[in-house]
Specification:
Oligomer: single chain
Distance between the termini: 60 Å
Helix content: 55-70%
Structural class: mainly alpha
C-alpha cells in the first residue's frame, strides 16, 4: 500500500510519454482516411466544404498550437484537413495514387 503513490507517479509519467505517440498514430490514420476518400472520389471541393461545415458547427480552433495538437488532438486540425483537401491532387499530375492498388481491384463475379 505504501508503493501506491509511486505506482501512480510512474503511471502518470508513462501516460505523459505515450499519449503523444498514440495521438500521432491516430492523426496519421485519419490523414490516410482523408487521402483514401479523396482518391476514391476525386472531389476535393466537397471534402473541403464538409470540413468547413464541420468547423462551423463545432466552433473549435481550426489551427490549435503544437502543444495542444501533440497531447490532445486525435484527428488532424480542421485547418490542416482543409488545406490537404485543397492541395492533394496527384491524379492531375499523373503521380501514382497511394491506394491505387485497392481502387483497381477486380470485382468478384456475381453470386460469389
Amino acid at each position: 500500500m505504501a508503493s501506491l503513490p509511486l505506482i501512480l507517479l510512474l503511471a502518470g509519467v508513462f501516460s505523459l510519454i505515450v499519449t503523444p505517440v498514440t495521438m500521432a498514430y491516430s492523426r496519421f490514420q485519419e490523414r490516410q482516411s482523408d487521402r483514401f476518400g479523396l482518391e476514391i472520389t476525386r472531389d476535393n471541393r466537397a471534402a473541403a466544404t464538409a470540413f468547413v461545415k464541420l468547423q462551423t458547427e463545432n466552433l473549435g480552433n481550426p489551427r490549435p498550437g503544437w502543444l495542444y495538437k501533440l497531447w490532445r488532438s486525435s484527428h488532424p486540425p480542421i485547418g490542416e484537413r482543409i488545406d490537404f483537401c485543397n492541395s492533394y491532387r496527384p491524379w492531375e499530375t499523373g503521380e501514382a495514387l497511394t491506394y491505387e492498388r485497392e481502387l483497381k481491384r477486380p470485382l468478384a463475379p456475381a453470386g460469389q
